[in-house]
């Protein structure tokens, strides 16, 4: 099964919400849409689900052109960020509703609702009304409705965003297994890079109404196509600074220079943008972290297992994220060490060079 | 500004509470030091909002007292408590400019325009919104609106406490991070007592010097982020803090040693108190190592997630799920592996509470 977008776009008045986008999404893994609020994730989902009409292009679901079909005629399910259930119906009836609409026999409905309720641990609550449930249980009810339907495509639009942190962790862990083997194309929108990495599968990075890069999640994390893609897929933000490359040496504006690896050395001499993830900039020197940088520490944060320091380096705001606890003195200069083997170099047009 | 003391606080929403279960707050004794950065952390329904409402005066506790310094404020209405609050959603006047919004809390208390100007300018500079001062608030992006809300909370220098109730919920992750560091920086500069209420461990741990963890109407632990991470006083704290949380494995204790399915687990040090029979071993994923040879508990790899800066391995050992965080190479799904627990970080829990002590000399 697959969901294919061919040059789709969406305009509202003068504003383009989705720019000429082509994508082929397949079953068997999660398809994550990752981008900040306003990047176009929800707009794209609305087009795929048939809740919004296309300005141009085609949408092909399992070989069938569904471009002109309404959501009801596409055999899809949608789970929103806000818990959407029928308030006057019991949990059982909420889960059963798509089956009733489809005219499924009563005995089969009971079986399928029970199966979905089992998977989502809702069995004790089947007779309750949604308002008697916690947020997590309400969202599980919405997910059960999406599962029970056996849709061709399931769209999950930031479904965990309104849940408690720990609950989010638990459901995120279960979601891929929940949809595994069901045959549906699963599309999951999120604004959190770490969530995309945890869900795995493939990721489409979105920025400003278009897909910047699409591919296996871990691959595009390791090889962002351009500076935009690197920025979308980094939290805390990826560090960047202009550098000059000459021969096998790169030099920062601060004068710090180091010898680069073969791939970078092979680039034409000139100006590039260096980018490096915060976890490759350490507060102490090691065999991997060898290039020293001085920065004025602005803010420090401690998350128990990790320490981060935001520092100013020649007008650039950088972050170091390191395991363990490091004492920093805010306002003072600290020496950080970057790992020269984890640097990205982007050409002046933004494309990844090495 | 003043020290805040909560003394023997209990609160029930029931008219005639009969058992502990009827109390949303069971018994709270707590002192917030003047100028501290605190977080109140817990899941939905743990009582943190009830506690916040009691401090702000929206709710009068069923039992106990609240003191600001030496003054008993238990019966005082919110307006008389001299506090500032920042809520989940921005509270600003859309028709006013950013300047007038920031000036509002000061003008409301009849401050001279000279002072208003001085404070608004200073706060705007700290928040990096100086260039927006003449913009109408309606035209701001959601994160800037929330920034201005925060600014309104911080503009007065005479407040007893500034309280933040899940202030970053509506903010995008990449901006959350910026606002969080801004808030932390502001605390370091203005030195007001701040209480930050959240269910998000990352926000709590990064903002606060002291985190108060609550569950079911009780304070489970108060500590620095490092203390909560390294020595959770209760398995709930171990689970709630950390991602994934602490592994909590069933064990049995006999003659001062812990056994996981018959296999001895070396604990950090001696067991405190008289523990015998069923208990739990707690070990953080960060301190579990995985090897295909060597010693340790037998397990099979069920899942491996590559999250970029490290890998999260989920293994099954005797029907128990164990998470390990690995830097570098990870085994494959289905592999038979040995799990080794770093001894100095392996703790014992009895009925949920920490029951082991560090070895001497550590």
Compose a concise summary of this entry.
Chain A is an alpha+beta fold and about 350 residues long. Chain A is built from 9 helices and 20 strands.
Q: What does it look like?
A:
- The complex is a heterodimer of chains A (354) and B (362).
- Chain A is α+β, with helices and mostly antiparallel strands.
- Chain A is built from nine helices and 20 strands.
- In chain A, strands 6-7-8-3-9-10 form a six-stranded mixed sheet, sandwiched between helices. Chain A has a five-stranded antiparallel sheet with strand order 13-12-11-14-20, with no helix packed on it. Chain A has a five-stranded antiparallel sheet with strand order 15-19-16-17-18, with no helix packed on it.
- In chain A, a hairpin with a 3-residue loop joins β16 and β17.
- With 362 residues, chain B is α+β, with helices and mostly antiparallel strands.
- Chain B is 23% helix and 33% strand.
- Chain B has eight helices and 21 strands.
- In chain B, the strands form four sheets. In chain B, strands 6-7-8-3-9-10 form a six-stranded mixed sheet, sandwiched between helices. Chain B has a six-stranded antiparallel sheet with strand order 13-12-11-14-20-21. In chain B, strands 15-19-16-17-18 form a five-stranded antiparallel sheet, with no helix packed on it.
- In chain B, α2 packs across α3, α2 runs parallel beside α4 and α4 runs parallel beside α5.
- The radius of gyration of chain B is 24 Å and the shape is globular.
- Chains A and B meet through α5, α6 and β16 of A and α5, α6 and α7 of B.
N-C termini distance of chain B: 39 Å
Uncertain runs of chain B:
none
Uncertain stretches of 5 or more adjacent residues of chain A: none
Shape of chain B: globular
Count the DSSP helices of chain A: 9
The fraction of residues in strands of chain A falls at 35-45%
Radius of gyration of chain B: 24 Å
How are strands sequenced across the largest beta sheet of chain B?
A: 6-7-8-3-9-10
User: Class by helix and strand content of chain A?
Assistant: alpha+beta
Mean pLDDT of chain A: 93
Radius of gyration of chain A: 24 Å
What portion of the residues of chain B fall into strands of 2 or more residues? 25-35%
Record field, number of beta strands of chain A: 20
What's the total count of β strands of chain B? 21
């Amino acid at each position: 099964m697959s969901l294919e977008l061919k040059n789709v776009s969406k305009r509202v008045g003068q504003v383009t919400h989705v720019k000429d986008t082509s994508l082929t999404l397949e079953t068997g893994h999660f398809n994550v849409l990752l981008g900040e609020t306003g990047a176009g994730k929800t707009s794209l989902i609305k087009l795929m689900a048939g809740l919004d009409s296309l300005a141009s292009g085609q949408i092909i679901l399992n070989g069938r052109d569904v471009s002109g079909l309404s959501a009801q005629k596409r055999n899809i399910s949608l789970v929103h960020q806000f818990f959407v259930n029928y308030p006057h119906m019991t949990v059982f009836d909420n889960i059963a509703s798509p089956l009733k609409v489809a005219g499924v026999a009563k005995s089969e409905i009971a079986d399928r609702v029970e199966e979905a309720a089992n998977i989502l641990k809702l069995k004790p609550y089947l007779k309750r009304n949604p308002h008697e449930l916690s947020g997590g249980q309400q969202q599980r009810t919405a997910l059960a409705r999406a599962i029970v339907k056996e849709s061709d495509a399931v769209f999950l639009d930031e479904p965990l965003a309104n849940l408690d942190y720990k609950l989010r962790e638990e459901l995120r862990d279960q979601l891929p297994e929940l949809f595994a083997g069901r045959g549906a194309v699963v599309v999951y929108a999120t604004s959190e890079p770490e969530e995309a990495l945890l869900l795995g599968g493939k990721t489409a990075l979105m920025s400003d109404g278009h897909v910047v890069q699409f591919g296996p999640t871990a691959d595009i994390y390791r090889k962002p196509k351009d500076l935009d893609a690197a920025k979308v897929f980094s939290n805390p933000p990826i560090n960047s600074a202009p550098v000059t490359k000459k021969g096998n040496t790169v030099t920062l504006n601060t004068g710090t220079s180091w010898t680069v690896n073969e791939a970078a050395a092979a680039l034409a001499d000139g100006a590039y943008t260096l980018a490096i993830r915060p976890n490759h900039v350490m507060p102490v020197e090691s065999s991997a972290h060898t290039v020293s940088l001085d920065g004025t520490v602005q803010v420090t944060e401690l998350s128990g297992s990790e320490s981060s320091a935001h520092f100013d380096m020649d007008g650039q705001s950088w972050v170091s994220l390191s395991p363990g606890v490091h004492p920093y003195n805010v306002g003072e200069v600290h020496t950080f060490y970057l790992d020269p083997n984890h640097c990205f170099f982007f050409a002046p047009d933004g494309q990844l060079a090495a | 500004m003043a020290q805040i003391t909560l003394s023997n606080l209990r609160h029930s929403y029931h008219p005639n509470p009969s058992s502990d279960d009827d109390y949303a707050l069971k018994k709270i004794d707590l002192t917030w030091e003047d100028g501290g950065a605190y977080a109140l952390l817990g899941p939905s329904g743990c009582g943190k909002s009830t506690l916040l409402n009691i401090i702000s005066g929206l709710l009068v506790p069923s039992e106990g007292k609240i003191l600001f310094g030496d003054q008993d404020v238990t019966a005082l209405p919110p307006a008389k408590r001299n506090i500032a609050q920042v809520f989940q959603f921005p509270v600003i006047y859309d028709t006013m400019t950013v300047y007038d919004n920031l000036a509002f809390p000061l003008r409301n208390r009849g401050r001279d325009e000279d002072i208003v100007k001085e404070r608004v300018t200073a706060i705007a500079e700290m928040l990096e919104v100086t260039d927006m001062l003449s913009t109408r608030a309606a035209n701001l992006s959601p994160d800037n609106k929330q920034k201005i809300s925060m600014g309104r909370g911080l503009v007065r220098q005479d407040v007893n406490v500034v309280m933040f109730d899940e202030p970053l919920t509506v903010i995008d992750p990449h901006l959350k991070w910026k606002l969080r560091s801004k808030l932390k920086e502001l605390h370091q500069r203005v030195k007001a007592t701040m209480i930050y209420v959240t269910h998000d461990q990352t926000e709590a741990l990064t903002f606060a010097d002291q985190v108060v963890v609550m569950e079911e109407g009780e304070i489970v632990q108060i500590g620095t982020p490092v203390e909560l991470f390294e020595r959770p006083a209760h398995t709930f704290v171990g689970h709630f803090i950390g991602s994934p949380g602490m592994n909590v494995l069933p064990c049995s204790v006999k003659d001062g040693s812990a056994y996981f399915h018959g296999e001895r687990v070396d604990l950090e040090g001696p067991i405190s108190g008289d523990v015998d029979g069923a208990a739990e071993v707690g070990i953080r994923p960060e301190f579990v190592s995985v090897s295909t040879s060597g010693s340790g508990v037998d397990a099979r790899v069920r899942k491996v997630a590559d999250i970029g800066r490290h890998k999260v391995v989920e293994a099954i050992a005797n029907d128990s799920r164990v998470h390990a965080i690995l830097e570098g190479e990870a085994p494959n799904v289905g592999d038979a592996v040995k799990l080794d627990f770093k001894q100095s970080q392996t703790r014992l829990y009895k009925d949920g509470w920490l029951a082991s002590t560090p070895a001497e000399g550590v």
